[in-house]
């Protein structure tokens, strides 16, 4: 059943996440299923808590159920701890929730892959990808141990988890991943990351040129959004879209010139 869920994701629009120097950008290639739909309908990126958002690819109803559970988890954390849920903790809880749906014959795995991004209260960005099996990568980094008399020395070797620098899922994930790997995300400002995210979505859409799509983008940054997960301003999305189209047209012209010279 997990394999069938993965196939559903592969047939969905491309979704990506970029964790850059000062925040996180989420972007999706939202395929237009009907010309009668009002633009902006059926958003594939949702706010979970004010500091966290989730983008998904795959079956839309499954995505809505997953988002609803994530919001419940965030609200439960806030009630109990009186603070927003850390991105890593939300990914951990939702990974366990997704994995539970692979264990019993009375339920089936979620037909989505979710990219969870946000900024913790200390200002550190985090990005995680949760697959239909419940798998997600929770990366830790080694650090020198604390003095022997320090409490909880068992945990002194670990920095807080940060997850991915970049993640991609959906039909165009391979092309998107190849483009993401070219970026120096650790030193990339978030406004530049928005432009790169738009270009990557347009590159990934090349395999589905016959289908219309909407570029949907959100961001979370301590500088640009005061730590809140919000939509990228429309004018910035439009500018990023224009630059992405121009870059693709330039690549096509170079390919045509190369073919002509080869002949």
Keywords, separated by commas or semicolons:
single chain; four-stranded antiparallel sheet; alpha+beta; five-stranded antiparallel sheet; 263 residues; globular
Describe the global form: globular
Strand order of the largest sheet: 7-1-2-8-9
Which stretches are low in confidence, meaning pLDDT under 50 for 5 or more residues running? 139-159
Helix content: 25-40%
Number of strands: 9
End-to-end distance: 50 Å
Structural class determined from secondary elements: alpha+beta
Biggest sheet architecture: 5 strands, antiparallel
Calculate the mean pLDDT score and round it: 86
- Count every helix, treating DSSP H or I runs of 4 or more residues as helices: 6
Order of helices and strands: HEEEEHHEEEHHEEH
What is the chains' assembly state?
single chain
Q: Strand content of the residues, in percent?
A: 15-25%
In angstroms, what is the radius of gyration?
19 Å
3D structure, described in words:
The protein is of the alpha+beta class and 263 residues long. It is 37% helix and 22% strand. The longest helix has 29 residues, at 234-262.
Secondary structure elements and pairings:
Blueprint: H1 2-10, E1 15-20, E2 23-31, E3 45-49, E4 52-58, H2 60-81, H3 87-100, E5 112-119, E6 125-130, E7 166-169, H4 173-180, H5 190-204, E8 213-221, E9 229-231, H6 234-262
Antiparallel strand pairs: 1-2, 1-7, 2-8, 3-4, 4-5, 5-6, 8-9
Helix pairs in contact: 2-3, 4-5, 5-6
